[in-house]
Design goal:
mainly alpha, 9 helices
Length: 233
Amino acid sequence: MTGPAIVPAGPYGAPAVTPIPPQLLRRRRSPLTWVTMIVLGLGALVIGILIFLTGGPVATLITTLLAAISFPLLILILFWLDRYEPEPARYRLAAIGWGGVVAVVLSLVAEQLLFSLPGTNTFVETAIIAPIVEEAGKGLFLVVVVIFRRAQIHGLLDGLIYGALVGVGFAFVEDIVYYLSSLQSGALGVTFFLRGIMGPFAHPLFTSAFGIGVGIAVTTRRPALRVLAPILG
């Protein structure tokens, strides 16, 4: 005859806490997570193929390696800032993927449409249309997270981390495109110095500002600030 299970005593005679089976701690990924991973993966594959067909294997390899030089340190810094309450790895990866796939595609399509409007010139295209379109495409990731996964953004730091990671993904793909163009024109060294050395933090900085605005919006009780903070960001 089997007797009752004996629970080992904890400190001061209190019963010890029974450990929770690891299976119960694992959360099943939702259908939205799987769809996001598949869409971003296929999008990255398509963009990679297009870049490969445009520049060829050697040029694609060279420009991809040059683009990859600038961002590992920045990503490590962001992970260090997020070390006390780290965001789930799948959301970090989704942020980078959104910047490198969705934001790039949205920006490319929207810019081509807006650049074709009458009355535009180089200044309007580069100083007005491009920044608004690109920041809208990147910042849309934080809007999607707030709508579908509100609990993932608790404040300023979460918004900053997600925004910066989106900017990293966007800048990585954009740098490859710029490097390919510069390689063909013979100005790769200058372009790498300007984008890879002097300005790799630009897109992460821009989108993190919007992320800070979103972080303020989700923590404030003032209705006006909920609208103004992301816009100002």
